[in-house]
Automatic annotation (TrEMBL):
Molecular functions (GO terms): rRNA binding; structural constituent of ribosome
Gene (name only): rpsD
Organism, as annotated: Candidatus Faecalibacterium intestinavium
Subunit structure: Part of the 30S ribosomal subunit. Contacts protein S5. The interaction surface between S4 and S5 is involved in control of translational fidelity.
InterPro entries per the UniProt record, alphabetical: Ribosomal_uS4, Ribosomal_uS4_bac-type, Ribosomal_uS4_CS, Ribosomal_uS4_N, S4_RNA-bd, S4_RNA-bd_sf
UniProt protein name: Small ribosomal subunit protein uS4
RNA-binding S4 domain residues: 89-150
CC terms in the record's Gene Ontology section: small ribosomal subunit
GO biological process: ribosomal small subunit biogenesis; translation
Pfam families, per database record: Ribosomal_S4, S4
Database matches in PROSITE patterns: RIBOSOMAL_S4 (PS00632), S4 (PS50889)
Amino acid sequence: MAKNTQPIAKRCKALGISPAVMGYAKKNTTRNSGSNMRKKQSEYAMQLKEKQKVKFIYGVLEKQFRNAFEKAASRPGQAGENLLQMMECRLDNVVFRLGYAQTRRDARQLVSHAHFTVNGKKVNIPSYQVKAGDVVEVRESSRSSAKFSKLVGPEAPVVALPAWLEREAGTLKGTVTRLPERSDIDYEVAEHLIVELYSK
């Protein structure tokens, strides 16, 4: 599968996002910190940057992202907000948001290796769309592994959950209490520029 191998910190700087959004709290780059080759961007460049930003954050390739946009545009409401909601509702993102993985890339791999169930059924598709009321849980056979066993108990890391998710204390079980709203997006993005780009 194709993937971007550019350094995370460098890519984040180019797209104007914090590495913390990607799950990399300690990454940073000071290379060329004062330089800005081109201060004024064209309208197309700004639209492209916003699209690349969202694709990069969620680790989605162009064809998959385009298909998601078309589905978002066909739904009632604003296409841009629908698209962000669909990205947030991806199972790999939910696994990351629940604190079961440090990054979305790690979460995508864990989902692909079938470590999770949704409503008791094994799901190994990272792009699987969760719905309100869905219960996402680490599979019984995976809980004893070192990766998951350290997520429960007194030494478990504290996770700042978004308002639309709940996680039962001391367990590896989380619930989607509602669908995410535009106000739940924790990074800056001008989604209307993505809509304009794809509407040409």
